[in-house]
Amino acid sequence: MKTYAASARDRRRAAIGTAAFAVAPATVAGAVPWLLTRWEVAAPVPGCVPAQVGGALLIGAGAAVIANSFVHFAVEGLGTPAPFAPPKHLVVGGLYRYVRNPMYVAIAAAVAGQGLLLGQPVLYVALAVGAIPVVAFVRLYEEPALARKFGADYEEYRRNVPRWLPRPTPWRPEGPESARG
Question: Which domains, ranges and CATH numbers included, belong to the chain?
Answer without folding.
Answer: 8-172 (1.20.120.1630)
